[in-house]
Automatic annotation (TrEMBL):
The chain crosses the membrane at residues 6-25, 32-53, 59-80. Its main location: membrane. This is GlsB/YeaQ/YmgE family stress response membrane protein. It is found in: Cell membrane. One of its GO terms (cellular component) is plasma membrane. Belongs to the UPF0410 family. It comes from the Bacteria. InterPro entries: Transgly_assoc. It is a multi-pass membrane protein. Keywords: Cell membrane, Membrane, Transmembrane, Transmembrane helix. The keyword Transmembrane helix applies.
């Protein structure tokens, strides 16, 4: 996404991380900075996983980028909860 600057990616990452934390029930333990980190790392993870199965993630648009970050953030929080044993 060429027109989306650094601040835009932080906003998308934060929103994806926040929604994922609500979905996974971890919002009480996370603040805004951690939501942003989870969303950005989730975007990287989601993009990597989708590229492994042959989905072209580059240039797919802002909605697809957001959904990719959301999917990756949910997977990331699931793995973290499984490893740490938090309920």
């Amino acid at each position: 996404m060429l027109g989306l600057g650094f601040i835009g990616w932080i906003v998308i990452g934060g929103l994806a991380g926040w929604i994922a934390s609500k979905f996974m029930g971890t919002d009480a333990q996370m603040g805004i900075p951690l939501n942003i980190v989870v969303g950005i790392v989730g975007g990287l993870l989601g993009g990597f996983l989708l590229s492994l199965i042959g989905v072209d993630v580059e240039g797919a648009g802002i909605i697809f980028s957001f959904l990719t970050a959301l999917l990756g953030a949910v997977i990331l929080l699931f793995v973290v909860k499984a490893v740490t044993g938090r309920r």
